[in-house]
């Protein structure tokens, strides 16, 4: 079936957000939530093939990608991003739909489900962060496995407040090569996405780096609410993911009707690193939910 694409903009508090709908299959739509905060839809490009079965919605959250980039720091809150997603969903007229979040997108997906559960068919939590405390602990564990000289550079610049230095960014790359993206060649869409990042959004809500948390999301923890998920849920991560497998499995164990999958050749981006397997798992999960 030929895919039919539609692009547009929706007005939300703070500006306009860009969206694209890919595919014209008859299944309930899938709304994708990119990571970050402040990443963009480019990182989720492999999910386009799911449009054979259903409309797949990509959008750039305010502050990144093709969406507006206002300079009002007060906009960068979880509540506003939840409101933004609801406005988009209503504008598109998608009552019954699936939600797929990646990384920060799983936090947004979780909070969205808790406040707007009606019509949500399933929740797909890819490389999730449900507890900041667990995330930081896992990242620190991995950090201690880095070469001592790399750790020393990180410690020095974090203490001095010079995390924008080239030396710190080079040290950060050592972590990322192990626990974010393990491919020898970075996909073009990922590179493009890096250029479209909303750096201010990330720094405001998260902090200087994945493992140095100073932003407004500090203290976030919805692990105590996982029992409230009343729809089928799919949790997944890579074997080397900064979203550590034992933590993601724990999230799944707290969720009533859930499945848990580990992609053995992946870090934080299995949809790129184990692309065929990842797409197959998501495809089969969605079809199973639709047919139930």
TrEMBL record:
Pfam families: Abhydrolase_1
GO annotation, cellular component aspect: membrane
Record's keyword annotation contains Hydrolase: yes
Keyword Glycoprotein tagged: no
InterPro entries cross-referenced by the UniProt entry: AB_hydrolase_1 (IPR000073), AB_hydrolase_fold (IPR029058), AB_hydrolase_sf (IPR050266), Peptidase_S33 (IPR002410), Pro_imino_pep (IPR005945)
Matching SUPFAM superfamilies: alpha/beta-Hydrolases
Annotated ranges, domain AB hydrolase-1: 28-274
GO biological process entries: proteolysis
GO function terms (MF aspect): peptidase activity
Sorted UniProt keywords: Hydrolase
Family in the record: Belongs to the peptidase S33 family.
Name this polypeptide is given: AB hydrolase-1 domain-containing protein
Native organism: marine metagenome
